[in-house]
Task: structure prediction
Amino acid sequence: MTEQPDEARVETRAHLTPEEAAAGSDDPRRQAEIILEDSDERTAHPERTKRASSQTPD
Result:
């Protein structure tokens, strides 16, 4: 994985979307860290993640 996302990004992302709030979250901050780490990995290494993503066209 890449480096841990910075605090400002985590704090911003920890505010749940309406869908996330409806589903609930035991730890929005940790959820935000995981989402941002995954996003950073996909951005830094798109060739590694392209085939695993159903959202990335060939």
Observations:
- The two ends are 23 Å apart (CA to CA).
- The chain has one domain: 7-49.
